[in-house]
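Help: why these numbers?

___
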Amino acid sequence: GIETLPEEAGRAAAEVLVLEFANEARLFVPVEQAHLVSRYIGVSKKPPPLDELGGARWEKAKIAAQRAVLDYAAQLLKLQAEREMLPGHPFTADTEWQKEFEASFLYQETPDQWKAIQETKKDMETPKPMDRLICGDVGYGKTEVAIRAAFKAVTSGKQVAVLVPTTVLAQQHYENFAQRMADYPVRVDLLSRFRSRKQQSATLRDLATGAVDILIGTHRLLSADVKFKDLGLAVVDEEQRFGVLHKERFKEAFRGVDVLTLSATPIPRTLYLSLVGIRDMSIIETPPKNRLPVETIVCPYDERIIRDAITRELARGGQVYFMHNRVGSILNVRDRIRELAPKAKIDVGHGQMPEDELEEVMKRFVEGKTDVLVSTTIIESGLDIPNANTIVIDRADLFGLADLYQLRGRVGRSNQKAYAYLMLPRHQMLIGEARKRVSAIKQYSSLGAGFKIAMRDLEIRGAGNILGTAQSGHITAVGFDLYCRLLKKTVSRLKGGRPIGPPEITVQLDFLALNPGQAGQDKHEAFLRSDYIADTRSRLQIYRRLAEAETRKEIDKLEQELRDRFGPVPEGAQNLLRLGRLKAQAAARQVNWIEVEQGKLKMRRKADYLQVGNRFPRLNPGTAADLFKQMESWMGKLTR
């Protein structure tokens, strides 16, 4: 946390961050150096063991993470280089058919979706094979991106493979693709265990002759007997749910072919920005128009509420999820719901059922043949069931925040009003962490609001999915934020770009008080007062962003944000912004040391002092704004 250290001999009072180490050792970091500290967020929920102050373990973990990041980035760049060497197929620019097909889309594309479509088509029109990842929540329009890419490939005379992790998802994609392309001479087919042997043989025969344009299926598509006449595009949905062997197989099978990967796992923006330049990615974050927020009701377990919720949903022709996360008692729960809603068709699904049986249950629910699905958390994240608009979560206190957020996201995928009932045992309605978690979900019921907090651990899991298991270990060792910073720096270095990160410049100005403890001694304030930004976390965040800003433009934007969020910027905060601008100017002039002592300005480039006419410039007395203006003026006279 933050503390104010009292004044002691030889040291002014100071506002500091307090870091705790093993053996109850504490380290104080001045708030103006808050950017040197990053919050630890790991992949698992277990808190990490504390290191000893001055011990070697942390340094070793950081070095190991740096090496791993270097290997990972180099491997991705190598793959990218290899793909660029492969002879790909440049698809033609949009034909009249393509334009007509896209215009037949019933909805208005969201800005993110439109951007993802344009990026994908642009990739397809280049000679190198595409390898693009599209991230976005279910129902946010990833499938339409894939459908347009597939149509483009087919109208250019190529075939398309659509690879999905489960049979039910394959069926859903098949219906979506077939429905969208019904008015065009495009043959969409399905290879699935829901098809007879005879049907499968006919499909494979037609695929080999080129009569099938788009084939959708599970990893069965990777079997030796599946032969395309001229494959041009592979769409892989939920890649992280395939095993390592399958991934290796489709790398081999799709060599030289354009690959479009779809993922419903949210990915942190920091990771996305760190991977820019070594992984082509599009993120769809904007929800479709007319999407209503899910109404969230936190209540004690009450069978009357359950009965009314089910009755109301079925009365409007909808379907209900009932989440009960304990397999041992799930059949008793089903029987109780039968008594509460005798006319409802009820099915049970849980992870201990044989896979085929579970798929049949999910298929019936997707097709609308089941009214209420009583299940554990195995509801597939990839499935889009717009007709299911009520979810009841029994013992919501036993779920983590991210799990609750994801489960609530199963409903509200159409323009119908959706309801989520989070039920707690009566005795827990007013106590403890579980209640806090559940209330947080209720608080963040508006679309995308509070998304950042609730999704954080989900995102980190998503990061693990995208980066792979080996990298997850290093995220655990050094924390997610530091890992992303290391990755971003490494990518920039490997690509021969300029170094990334705030310039390392030493600034010692005797006329500034950098924290409250130094204020008043004939010094100008240059810090954020707690009466301007009361929330400690927000204050630290602004300090960090200011320290990490690399250009004057970034600092100007930050100043505008301060005005919008906290009101007119006081003089102390203005001086902090001026200091940031001075550092940005120094970095542009390769100055790495600035010191002002009793009006004398000393600047250094590497080890050499910079003088004007063989002497150090002197600053005329004045306000802090005057002094900064003079320093910037002197620096402007230096050659670059």
Summary: Residues 346 and 423 are 20 Å apart (CA to CA). Residues 445-455 have pLDDT under 50 and may be disordered. Residues 74-284 form a domain with the Rossmann fold fold (CATH 3.40.50.300). The two ends are 42 Å apart (CA to CA).
